Amino acid sequence: MARLLRLLRLLPALLPAVVFFAAHAAAQGLTPCFQATLADDDDKVISVCSTVIKSAGLKGNSLSMAYSNRGLGYLRKGEYDRSITDFDQSIRIDPKNAFAYDNRGDAWREKGQYDRALTDYNAAIRNDATFASSYLNRGLTYERMGNPESARADYRSVLAMKGDRPIDKWARGEAQRHLTRLDSAAPKQ
Fold first, then answer.
1. What is the spatial distance between Cα 34 and Cα 54, in angstroms, rounded to a whole number?
2. Phi and psi (nearest 5°) for 38?
3. What is the 3-state secondary structure (H, E, C) of 134-149?
4. Of the candidates 9, 137, 145, 168, which has an alpha carbon nearest to the alpha carbon of residue 75?
5. Could you read off the pLDDT of 42-88 as tens digits, one per residue?
6. Could you give the CA distance from residue 113 to residue 41 in angstroms, rounded to a whole number?
7. Are 49 and 33 in contact, with CB atoms under 8 Å apart?
8. Confidence of residue 176 (pLDDT cuts 50, 70, 90)
9. DSSP codes, the chain
10. Spatial distance between the Cα atoms of 33 and 6, rounded to a whole number of angstroms
11. To the nearest whole number, what is the mean pLDDT of the chain?
């Protein structure tokens, strides 16, 4: 009994450390899932992120990102319905997750559901107006819909952005490539 009382007296002093380490462990828990998305092995993305979702004790934005990252693995494998399920879950957990909206828009675009894709890209842009990938992907969707002028406008918007995240830099390079291709294919006047 005396030992239990000593532990109870120490609890207020230990609680902040326990909370800190739990939060740190949860944040670290997402890292392998994110790192897996940087490679070309989508089965590994799905496996690693599934493990993280089940066992890392993630909550909030971190759990939302884990579902979004796993959905990206399914998306890249062409398993669009499974990816949409994960993106839906990601958005339910964190309705402000621009990555999840952007990725779900990609799945809708690949399924030929362009209006749904545009809705998701617009939601991503509302949540993060500097998220260049959403403008790029909206432009790609406009192209598939036969609207090169709207595509050009979105590609130009991407080129005007100054974001320094890797995804922003990638989007600028892709926007330049697509804009150059569109401009070279346009009839000369």
1. 15
2. -80, -15
3. HHHHHHHHHHHCCCHH
4. 137
5. 999 999 999 999 997 899 999 999 999 999 999 999 999 999 999 99
6. 27
7. yes
8. very high
9. -HHHHHHHHHHHHHHHHHHHHHHHHHHHHHHHHHHHHTSS-HHHHHHHHHHHHHHS---HHHHHHHHHHHHHHHHHTT-HHHHHHHHHHHHHH-TT-HHHHHHHHHHHHHTT-HHHHHHHHHHHHHH-TT-HHHHHHHHHHHHHTT-HHHHHHHHHHHHH----SHHHHHHHHHHHHHHHHHHHHSPP-
10. 40
11. 87
Say if residues 110 and 117 touch (Cβ distance below 8 Å).
Answer: no
Show the tokens assigned to 112.
């030929």
Q: What would the pLDDT profile of 118-140 be if each residue is shown by its tens digit?
A: 999 999 999 999 999 999 999 99
Tokens of 40: 């070309």
User: CA 163, CA 165: separation in Å to the nearest integer?
Assistant: 6
* Radius of gyration from C-alpha coordinates of the chain: 21
Q: Of 136, 149, 134, 76, whose CA–CA distance to 110 is shortest?
A: 76
Higher pLDDT, 23 or 133: 133
Instruction: Find tokens 């809705």 and name the residue.
Output: 119
